[in-house]
């Protein structure tokens, strides 16, 4: 997964729910050095008494927000969606630097 263009990552999930696998893989895919590059990473653990829904929300450098429900989306689907936008930003960055 291309994480270079992320500025903010919010992951909200129940560790015992169906969404836990996708949410944990999403957090694990972000390299540790990404925090030093200015990416704000937030994780929120839900329990049965909290009525909030599970969520993964990514904000890119161009201020685009992408969010999805990790209980309905697999990690591969989410990764492909996020990589598609990251590739667009990489192409734009390449064109601007020439």
UniProtKB/TrEMBL annotation:
Top-level division of the source organism's lineage: Eukaryota
InterPro entries linked: Ribosomal_mL53, Ribosomal_mL53_fung
Similarity-based family: Belongs to the mitochondrion-specific ribosomal protein mL53 family.
Keyword Mitochondrion in annotation: yes
Keyword terms: Mitochondrion, Ribonucleoprotein, Ribosomal protein
Subcellular location: Mitochondrion
Listed name of the protein: Large ribosomal subunit protein mL53
GO CC annotation: mitochondrial large ribosomal subunit
An MF annotation (GO) of this entry: structural constituent of ribosome
Pfam families reported for this sequence: MRP_L53
Gene3D superfamilies attached to this UniProt entry: Glutaredoxin
